[in-house]
Amino acid sequence: MSKTDTAGLLDDLVSLYLDNHDLITGGSSDTLNKHREEAIQNFRIIGLPSAKNEDYKYSRVEPLFQHEYEKYFTPKKISFRVDDIFRCDIPELDTHLAMVLNGFYLPSSGQLQKLDNGIIVGSLAQAATDFPEIVAKHYNVYAQCNADGLVALNTAFAQDGIFIYVPKGAAEEKPIQIINLLMSEENLMVNYRNLIILEESSHANILVCDHTLSSKRYLSNVVTEIFTGANSTLEYVRMQNEHNNSSQLSHTFINQEEGSSVKTNTLTLHGGFIRNNLHIALKGEGASAQAFGLYLTDRTQHTDNFTFIDHAVPNCSSFEHYKGILDEQATGAFNGKILVRPNAQKTQAYQSNNNLLLTADARINSKPQLEIYADDVKCSHGATVGQIDADALFYMRSRGIGERDAKLMLMFGFAHEIVGQISIPTLRDRLDELVDKRLHGELSRCHTCPMHCC
Amino acid sequence: MLIVNDLHARINDKEILKGINLEVKAGEVHAIMGPNGSGKSTLASVLTGREMVEVTHGQVTFNGKNLLEMPPEVRSREGIFLSFQYPVEIPGVSMVNFMKAAVNEQRKYRGLEPLSATDFLKLMRERKELVEIDSALTNRSVNEGFSGGEKKKNEIFQMAMLEPKLAILDETDSGLDIDALRIVANGVNKLKSPDNAVIVITHYQRLLDYIVPDFVHILYNGQIVKSAGKELALELEEKGYDWIKNGNLKG
After folding, report:
1. Do the domain assignments include residue B33?
2. What does the alpha-carbon distance between residue A236 and residue A166 come to, in Å, rounded to a whole number?
3. Residue B17 placed within a domain
4. Helices and strands (H and E) in chain B: how many
5. Which residues of chain A have a CB within 8 Å of the CB of B158?
6. Angstrom distances, CA of residue B25 to CA of B30, B201, B239
7. Confidence at residue B175, expressed as pLDDT on a 0 to 100 scale
8. Distance (Å) of CA B73 to CA A399, B4, B166
9. What pLDDT, on the 0 to 100 scale, is given for residue A3?
10. Where are the beta strands (DSSP E) in chain B?
């Protein structure tokens, strides 16, 4: 069957599931397995997002699946030490570290680590076996498996990923850092799943970094579900740094209970094709969400941030700010959907998106989408697309700063408004440095990585 | 130091400067006065290399070098400084990083090593005191959220950091109250030496009470129509610009 045909593509993916059903379910607990049947049925009905799907208007997903990929249904034995080939770009940062390799948790000290204050970090597969009640209470509850075929596909295939559990009242200032590595000798598709649970009045900082370590073609379809209990606070920083031959479809669902406070910062430093779906559901009164994002793209890279903030109850606030710099032939999109449901009075929702286009060929589509069904609310949105400020450039040059350096400083200043939102100073400084390196064109050479794959 | 010879320049298709001749020597203070639209700011733009102005005729040399061939950053490194009429806000770029980059570029041009972080901060502190600038300003993004007066003081602070050979003050007095005016003028006077020169562009005599010029030039309709000593500014103040517009002057 031709892989270029949409129906054929769907059939191939369903067959892939059916053919490997025993392998997939064999390595998983019932907690995960019991969702698979419905998920694959949903996928069969919904399919991959097509060009006609309004939510995917600016990102064509189907062609990504038309390549041949290897899929691992059991963790592949690796013949190298990760430490030998990978050095984290944020090394001096003191974190609780967890690694995921090709979608499977990479054990360092057991499948699940328990920190002093009762926080559990480790493998989702193991957690589903060891703590079935906790996992079952939240797993596949917040992800919209019946709305997006990609989420359904992930739910059918997902076997492992990261599990983080922060018990009631526990507060951890030291960031929990998750490093997702892709390293394979063949083209690879991964569907992994993360589950993060913050119980009532708890607090955590989580940093997620995505890296590719070999030059093969990768397709990641990742679902992350986050539950923040009443009065909990979470800062969630996502740093994406993948090579130009990789594609990432990322779906993050955050469910916020009353009085909870969440700040996300999605920093796309490098990547071939990236689609970030961020769904934040404000389900309890007094919840507040801040969503920040930065995308730096060049060559033929494509980054699409689709955010959906659901004001389901009264007295919640959301603040959203995404910024992007697009160079060469890069393309991008920002879609900011805000839904204020009929009873969600006293909602405050603000959104802005600013873009710098460095060339005439770079393109961005910015689309605010506000649906407001309550009458006593404060909402605003704004989007800008512009070039480097010529007056600022001249001002800097008139002080002796060369044109290239002046432009880099201006771009850095533009980006810093987002990076500056990160609360942890050491992390903020390191990400500032990474952004600076990226703007200087250094990350694309992966200078810290001996693979030189990009 | 600076020799401007029969300079003509236009913006879009409009000729703004119609044959400017001017010589500025080290140690001198020149004032250029004139009504709105006479070409004062355009002259500043030409001297600093702003791209929107096109030079159609004439030469400008600075210490013997052809200034018009240099990009703006090289003119700065050669020692030309413009205090902007409207200083630009640059969100996200800190004053410290901005000044460090500028100072080190100037040093590199002269074959000097970059300043160490300690030496740089020491220099900043010294110069802040010299020009009486509030410390807090230099901890912020360049000009962001500064008041009009703070922006102008910040220009003089940058001048103190860069120690130019020729400083062009483009309506530095506009929007300043009398206290800020005094601080700005004091800063300029403290930086004055027999080796450098200043061009003060202004509408009003007021600033010239504080920065006393050796020469006053009246620019009108793209040409310098009269040059004399500091008494010319007083005469102009007394008689108003109509005096020039009515053609009472002989250049």
Report:
1. yes
2. 14
3. yes
4. 9, 12
5. 399
6. 10, 17, 29
7. 81
8. 6, 20, 14
9. 47
10. 2-11, 14-24, 29-33, 53-62, 65-66, 80-83, 90-94, 141-142, 166-170, 197-202, 215-220, 223-228
A413 closest CB neighbour out of B72, B75, B91: B91
Token digits of residue B248: 């009472």
Do B105 and A416 count as a contact with CB atoms less than 8 A apart?
Answer: no
Using a CB-CB cut-off of 8 Å, the residues of chain B touching A399 are 73, 76, 98, 102, 158, 162
Angle at A375 between CA A369 and CA A381, to 5 degrees: 30
What digits encode the pLDDT tens for the residues B153-201?
Answer: 999 999 999 999 999 999 998 888 888 899 899 999 999 999 999 999 9
Whether ipTM exceeds 0.90: yes
Q: How many domains, chain B? A: 1
Q: Does residue B93 lie in a domain region?
A: yes
Q: Taking CB atoms and an 8 Å cutoff, what residues of chain B touch A415?
A: 92
User: Looking up tokens 């041949």, which residue turns up?
Assistant: A68
In a domain, B184, yes or no: no
Q: Going from the first residue of chain A to its last (454 residues), give the mean pLDDT of each consecutive group of 10, the final group possibly shorter.
A: 71 94 92 96 94 92 92 77 64 81 86 92 96 97 91 97 97 92 92 97 96 90 98 97 94 98 96 97 98 96 98 98 97 97 97 97 96 97 95 97 95 94 90 89 56 40
Owning domain of residue B16: 2-178+191-245
Compute the distance between CA of residue B151 and CA of residue B145 in angstroms, rounded to an integer.
Answer: 9
d(CA A386, CA A137): 46
